[in-house]
């Protein structure tokens, strides 16, 4: 395909539908696929919960987290839900100005920043761990509030139970994967 022609393609030609006609033009299989793809954000939130539940065990077994006190570890663990609460308060106002797609993309970037802080900085630094978890909680808070609304827009109201089941399953799967990863 010609490069210039690819740039000039419309959204309808690339992915098969326009935003205005989302409930009319998507087949049932596409709706399932888009809902499954969108629900991966809940799996990321499950990763955060699974990671924090292993932190005390990591503190006792490894030298990486030995410089943190139990009080500091409890603050690191509680930073994730604190971030969810902080961002959820003003999210309904922002939703109408920005829209669900942009908010979900913003949430994914926020979560990526959180995991980058976890990966590349010292595990003994309380401030970095706390900030990382707080940032991750803010990103997950956006996902928790906006994702069901966005999935209902994609799938329509007849798929409400499927959406709830899918989101709950993805969250639990994220926790389970984090447990299966062991002490990494």
TrEMBL record:
UniProt cross-references to PANTHER family, sorted A to Z: FACILITATED TREHALOSE TRANSPORTER TRET1-1-RELATED, PTHR48021
Transmembrane stretches, start-end: 32-53, 73-91, 103-121, 127-150
Topology versus the membrane: Multi-pass membrane protein
Keyword line: Membrane, Transmembrane, Transmembrane helix
GO annotations of cellular component type: membrane
InterPro entries: MFS_dom, MFS_sugar_transport-like, MFS_trans_sf, MFS_Trehalose_Transporter
Matching SUPFAM superfamilies: MFS general substrate transporter
Principal location class: membrane
Record-given protein name: Major facilitator superfamily (MFS) profile domain-containing protein
GO molecular function, one term: transmembrane transporter activity
Pfam family, one: Sugar_tr
The keyword Transmembrane is annotated on this UniProt entry: yes
Every Major facilitator superfamily (MFS) profile domain range: 34-184
Location of the protein in the cell: Membrane
